[in-house]
Amino acid sequence: MGIPKILIVDDRPENLLTLEGLLEGFVVDLVRATSGEEALAHTLDHDFALILLDVQMPGMDGFEVAELMRGNRKTKHIPIIFVTASYKASEHIFKGYDSGAVDYLLKPLNSKVFRSKVGVFIELYQQKEALKDKTVEFDRKLVELEELQQQLEETNEQLLMLSTTDGLTGLLNRRRFDELLNEEWKRGSRTGRSLSLVLMDIDHFKAYNDTYGHQVGDDCLREVASTLMEIPLRVMDKTSRIGGEEFAVLLPETGRQGAMEVANRVRECVDRLQKPHHSSPTAGNVTISIGVASLVPALDDPARKLLELADIGLYRAKSLGRNRCCY
Ligand code: GH3
Ligand code: MG
Ligand code: MG
Ligand code: MG
Fold it and tell me: Average pLDDT of the chain?
């Protein structure tokens, strides 16, 4: 924080010595000036805790110095105490206060009173400096806080992403699918428009795992998921992995015909992959069966009604020989 500085100003060096004697014991740096001009020059170079200012000086007198300091943004906050032996009339004292001084002391000075007044201004200065340090620290902390907040927002976004995404495929997960199904069911019941669901299940996937191993099974799931992602859909159509080898596309504001078209496209895309599945009784390749459901949502019915209906379609597709779409 630095040692407080006091400027003592008097045209007579012996008076400066007297002041120095009175200030003995204070932990301060004393700066001396023997004219008003010199005093002003010092105020531009240093920040003072206090100025002890003689009134009568040749050239610029103490009143002029005080007036000029008060008019300068850089110096107007520095407390000035006039110290004089010759200007004792009340008109001078008033003039001293009018020029912005905090006190006007007459010589001979009472050492005890003088020292206690000086002590107050040193204390005030130190408190002000401490406050300045705190402000700097506060600003630094504020910047840190803003950075932390930014990090927190990013972490929250990542967490939200993780909580709605399937780790293996990057598709939406079952949790998010259930949320979306409920949201769309409610929305559909307000708009009166059909909501459709395309429910997919890989054929003979247990056999695939048994033949190629679980790891290759995972690769296959990822590949099927990528294929689903490549199929152009509307933004509102949501693709999820809702079970081990089960996927779903939710199609708001879509009827059965539109849903069937999507389902056929998906099935063909997977079929065209020509991904070998030697132990499949259906074909030599990985295939999927699809159940399609389409309903106009009613608030009285639960959203799972759509899922149950799609399940019936899927069961039918499996029974009829797999690698097909049914409702
Ligand atoms: P279907 O044609 O009737 O659907 O026969 P399926 O063998 O596909 O059906 P089933 O429900 O009997 O078996 C599903 C298999 O999917 C069993 C399980 O080992 C596998 N599976 C589920 N989740 C995962 C996974 O995350 N990774 C891998 N590699 N396999 C999975
Ligand atoms: Mg003088
Ligand atoms: Mg299954
Ligand atoms: Mg299956």
Answer: 96
Whether 109 shows a pLDDT value over 90: the answer reads yes
Please state the length of the chain: 327
Is residue 57 pLDDT above 80, yes or no? Answer: yes
**Are the beta carbons of 292 and 325 closer than 8 angstroms?**
yes
**Mutation to probe ligand 1, out of 205, 209, 214 (largest number of atoms < 8 A from CB):** 205
214: which 2 tokens? 């679980």
Sorted by sequence, the CB contacts under 8 Å of residue 282 that are 6+ apart come out as: 203, 204, 321, 322, 323
- ipTM of this complex prediction, to 2 decimal places: 0.96
Does ligand 1 come within 6 angstroms of the Cβ of 216?
no
153 lines ligand 1 (CB under 6 A): no
Give the pLDDT score at 2. 86
Task: Indicate whether residue 321 lines ligand 1 (CB < 6 A).
Answer: no
Task: Compute CA distances 12 → 21, 54, 108, whole Å.
Answer: 15, 9, 15
Give yes or no for residue 247 CB within 6 A of ligand 1.
Answer: no
pTM of the model: 0.68
Separation in Å, CA 320 to CA 141, 242, 277, 317, 323: 69, 23, 20, 5, 9
183 lines ligand 1 (CB under 6 A): no
Residue for token pair 């003088």: 114
Give the per-residue pLDDT at 1. 67
Cα–Cα distance measured from residue 299 to residue 270, given in angstroms and rounded to the nearest whole number: 35
| Interatomic CA distance for residues 175 and 309, integer angstroms | 20
b or e along 201-217 (b: 16 or more beta carbons within 10 Å of the residue's beta carbon)? bbbbbeebbeebeeeeb
Could you tell me the distance, in angstroms and rounded to a whole number, from the CA of residue 182 to the centre of ligand 3? 22
From the CA of 206, give the closest atom in ligand 1: 7
Hey, whose CA ends up nearest to atom 17 of ligand 1?
A: 206
Query: Are 288 and 245 within 8 A, CB to CB?
Result: no
